[in-house]
Amino acid sequence: MAKVTFNEDLCKGCGLCIDFCPKKCLGFAEHFNAKGYKPAEMKKQEDCIACAFCARMCPDVVIEVYK
Ligand code: SF4
Ligand code: SF4
Hints:
Helix content: 10-25%
Distance between the termini: 6 Å
Largest sheet: 2 strands, antiparallel
Shape: globular
CATH class: Alpha Beta
Number of strands: 4
Bound molecules: iron/sulfur cluster
Radius of gyration: 11 Å
CATH architecture: 2-Layer Sandwich
Structural class: alpha+beta
Number of domains: 1
C-alpha cells in the first residue's frame, strides 16, 4: 500500500499538493506546525494511488511517497 509522509514543520500551507492530488486525498490539518501554518496531511489514505504528484508539486520538498 502507498505511504505518503510529510515533514510537516517544513510545510508553508500553500495547498498546491492538495489541489493537484488527482484522488483528492489531502487536506489541511487542524493543528499548526512550527512555522505557524496548518500543514497538509493525508485525509483519505485508502484512495491514494501513489502517483507522487503531491511530492512533485511541493515547492518545499515536504512530501515523500513510498509504494
Ligand atoms: S501520491 Fe498521488 S494520490 Fe497519493 S496523495 Fe499524493 S497526489 Fe494524491
Ligand atoms: S505543497 Fe508542500 S508546502 Fe504546500 S501545502 Fe503541500 S506540503 Fe505544504
